[in-house]
Amino acid sequence: MNSTSHTDSGDARESRLVRREFLRNTGGAGLGMALASLLAACGSSSKTSSASAASGGRTPLLIWYWGEQEAPGMQKFMEQAVARYNAQQKRVKVTAVLQSSDTLYSAFATAAQAGKGPDIQYLWGGTQALVDVWLGYLAPLSDYIDESWLNANIPQGARSQTYWDGKQWGMPFYQIGTALPYNKKLFRAAKLDPEQPPTTWSDFMAALEKLKGTGVSPIGLGFKDQFLGGWLISYFGQQNFNSIAEAIAPFKGGTAYAGPTYTEWISRVKDLVDNGFSNNDVLSINLYQGQNLFPTRKAAIVTSVQPQITSFYRTMGGADTVGVMLPPAFGTGTLARSFGVPAQVLLITKFSSHKEEAAEFLKFLHTPEMMQLMYKVSGAITPDNKFDQAWLDTETDKTMLGWQKSLPDFWYQYYYPLQFETNGVDPGLQKLWEPNGSVAGAVSSMQSAIQQWKNQSPAQAQAYSSWQLLA
Amino acid sequence: MIAQASTASTEPRIHRAVVRRGTSRRQRARRLAWQVLRQIPLLAMAVVVLFPLYFMVSNSLKSDQAFAANALEPATSPTLSKYGHALTTGGLARFFLNSTIITVVSVTVATMAAALAAYALATMHFRGRETIFRVMLPAMAIPSIVLLVPQFRLMTHLGLVNTRWSVIILYIGVMLPLSIYLFRNVFLAFPRELLDAAAIDGCGVLSTFWRVVVPASRPVIVTTLLVNTVFAWNELLLALVFLQSQQQRTLVVGLTVFSSLYSLDVPELMAGMTLATIPIVAFYLFGQRYLVRGLMSGVGR
Amino acid sequence: MRTKRLAPYALLAPAMALLALVFAYPVVAVVNQSLSVPGLFGVTHRGFGNFSIIFKDPLFWSSLENNLKLFLTIPFMVIVGLLIASLLYSRTSGWRIYRSLAFLPYVLAVPVIGVVFSYMLEKDGVLNEALSSVGLGFLRHDWLGNPSLAIWSVAAVIVWQQLGFAIVLFLSRMIAIDESLYDAAKVDGANSFQRFLYITLPQLARVIEFFVAISFINMLSWVFSYIYVMTGGGPVQKTYVLELYVYEDAFRNGLSNLASAASVVILTVATIVLAFQAVVRTRVDRIAV
């Protein structure tokens, strides 16, 4: 029973063969490719005919979308919208597939690289969609929809987030105005005026101190899944800028991400942490869990978006309990008092063979009937000039729409490269909750993230440098 | 004392641990202490294994308030409401069907192909025998993520994306190296005389394989089937990327999507997890008898 | 006689065809892409530029470091596995139940385990709560939120699942050992530890080596789901592993060329590990029985 005989020339042979492995694989690859092309001959020809045959002779249109987590009810809206579209015309049959957060980008990246996938793809807006534009996976919306229609219907703030190289790429799908909802009852308990939330930073800190005294977490946060960093920098990081151009200058090149203009906000966040104004398990719970501290009344203030605030409003007792406030101002720039309204977008894919039909469906989603339906079912607002304030049914929504009409719209997260956030902002800020965290450490984290992004993605850096803003 | 000693020597040796030259009270106490001591690591293991499962099941039976009040206690007033909701959140039956089809087909084909290949590699002499084996083995160490994009391109080319076949083919590929390794190990040790005897009796290659080698290799077949089934049933990444629509999704993928939608409703989440876990646990507990019998003759020589 | 000579190739054909399809072409594609360095204006050139970029990335090195940290769980699993298998072998009361329990974690899906443990290991989660309630409150930790602790918490979950495989593997090999060997040794006066060292271990050598090899491969190539579900690479990017590094570059950062380069590194490390393991196997064969 001695199996060593089969490994007699053992070691030496091992290493030689290991080195020859890749050459062998090439031979195997030859076989593999021959096999593939053989099968492909049978595979591809029947594909296109079977696809349209399956939809009964109508042009098929496939949409991959997201949004149920951010605006609960979005799935129901899409189902109803698609059903109505399919019923009212017979040329096109739309199918919409809901993605989970984990599959949204990976599935699209894989499909795009293989050149086959959906006709319409949902992406988080701003630079998070532009990366795929720069990779060549998407087709410009403005090639299929008139500039005049876009100008008339889509708010400029929303348009500029995916406007690049003189073209509109993303069709804003729903917007998520970001603000800080607060619990009026908890405010009252802390002897704070529930109708007059703090607007300056010093008032804010004083209010948080009082809230802490009543035993709740003044601010509820969750950082484990590394999303919170983008929120914090977008709530506070732009307050010393006077224009969007200033905000993106470090990424275009030339300006360093340094000095109080760019970094004062980090000290402010550290103040929040050091004073114990956040819950004690920030690093060990996820963003949504942090937000959930609001309806469970464990936190008085949380970071949130308009559809979620609306659902808080509807489930927690309306205007008596839920109010909304802007991030308090400490900065001195024009953007210190701004209202971030990121817009999530739907884009037409480069490899779609039904781009005109896709554009038609996107315009359909901007008809008054559909906009009302979306708000009713999911609480989300379509970024559209035709959106009527009369459709809103919560005080918080009315307040926020008022802000949108009167304040500058800037959401930092949608204007910087994602790697700045994942490699710089998130780890840098997370350290602040650690015993040896420091502002200097966070700043250096962010600076090296920018440098690394430039080194690793020269193509992106180049596309960035030629970004002429619409605003 | 003496009486006990003599009875001890005449009584049959029932339990090794008890019968010795003398069973004095101290020695019995020592024996007992030793027994208790041995239980400790095993008990510790049992607690460690069961605690997360207890967490999952007990919290699946709680209402939201009960869970928020105390996540550690068992459910004091258990309710199946969360299960009801989890079951009606459509597609569960379809997911289960997809998982079953994919697992059964891929595991069967992979195990057969591996056994045949290993049989050739172990019992026959031909050019490239060692080379083929040594080149194929490292494939086991390639993470799925590395090959994902070219594999997707390939499957697109073949028109198989979003069909169960894409996943079946990929699973078979991934399972083959380890399966071949396991079979080959066992076949190498197979007694030459039996193979020669079969040849003399006039058995061809395939019938020798079926009539002689396979029946004698039950342990490794069982092991391979088990490892492969667990892999195919639980595999996440490939199923996530290649099976896009509701009709094609597997149970594990459905569970992942489900969990991201219900991340805040923990009892609901736990109900979904428990439902998804029951089939594989049932399969394991039921198949355990065969596993034990199969492994009794030794594995991994 | 013609058919006899072709027989082995015919038997190998199905497996080889599938392996070529699933592995050969994709591996070549990945290696190919790793050598394609994108520059400005959409132009690409051939070279090792991608590799020099990732070698300069501290995140790449910390990812590799975490994989190496996971390797450290292997001796632990072998020792504990041997311990438990021995206890089961000696038929301690209830051993059948314990044996069923031992292997149970192995059959569970990683998403299930990952999610359940994520909740359990929260700072105010049930594990800490349970520790406090039995008076071990000083052992409370932020298991997944503490940057230096997180990777070890994930390692513990991986061990929780993989240990059963070791136990069952070792136990079934132990059962096959001829008992007369032990009896003979006892007559010679060997105590239980000596019996273990000189009889059990040599018999188990091959199985242990097999388990170690499989575990190396697991810790290098099959831990993505655990990390992804439980920590997402954090906190402070301290739980990145090579698979996650590839995933991020390929699917989130739009840097598939760098992802391919990192993939080639994984393949190379895996090949080295396997080659090393093959050498160890011949050594083990010399002491094995």
Q: What can you see in these coordinates?
A:
The complex is a heterotrimer of chains A (471), B (301) and C (289). By secondary structure, chain A is of the alpha/beta class. Chain A has two domains: 53-176 and 341-406, D-Maltodextrin-Binding Protein, domain 2, CATH 3.40.190; 185-338 and 417-465, D-Maltodextrin-Binding Protein, domain 2 (3-Layer(aba) Sandwich). Chain A has 20 helices and 13 strands. In chain A, the strands form four sheets. In chain A, strands 1, 2, 3, 4, 7 and 13 form a six-stranded mixed beta sheet that branches. Mean pLDDT of chain A is 85; it is low at 1-53. By secondary structure, chain B is an all-alpha fold. Chain B folds into two domains: 2-60; 85-296, MetI-like (MetI-like fold). Chain B is 74% helix and 0% strand. Chain B has helices at residues 2-10, 25-60, 64-69, 81-88, 92-123, 129-136, 144-157, 164-188, 192-200, 205-216, 218-234, 237-242, 251-261, 266-296. In chain B, helix 2 crosses helix 14 (266-296). The longest helix of chain B has 36 residues, at 25-60. The model of chain B is unreliable at 1-14 (pLDDT under 50). Chain C is mainly alpha-helical and 289 residues long. Chain C has a single domain (57-287), classed as MetI-like (MetI-like fold, Orthogonal Bundle), CATH 1.10.3720.10. Chain C is built from 13 helices and two strands. A two-stranded antiparallel ribbon of chain C has the order 1-2. Chain C is globular, with a radius of gyration of 24 Å. The two termini of chain C are 38 Å apart. The relative contact order of chain C is 0.13. The model of chain C has no long low-confidence stretch (mean pLDDT 88). The interface between B and C is large, with 87 and 87 residues.
Helix content of chain B: over 70%
Structural class of chain B: mainly alpha
Global morphology of chain B: flat
Please report the distance between the alpha carbons of the first and last residues of chain B.
49 Å
Largest sheet of chain B: none
Order of SSEs of chain B: HHHHHHHHHHHHHH
Order of helix and strand elements from N to C terminus of chain C: HEEHHHHHHHHHHHH
**Based on DSSP secondary structure assignment, what is the total number of beta strands of chain C?**
2
Number of domains of chain C: 1
Note the beta-strand portion of chain B.
under 5%
Per CATH, what is the topology of the largest domain in chain B?
MetI-like fold
* Reported CATH architecture of chain C: Orthogonal Bundle
Largest interface comes to: B-C, 87 and 87 residues
Oligomerization category of the chains in this entry: heterotrimer
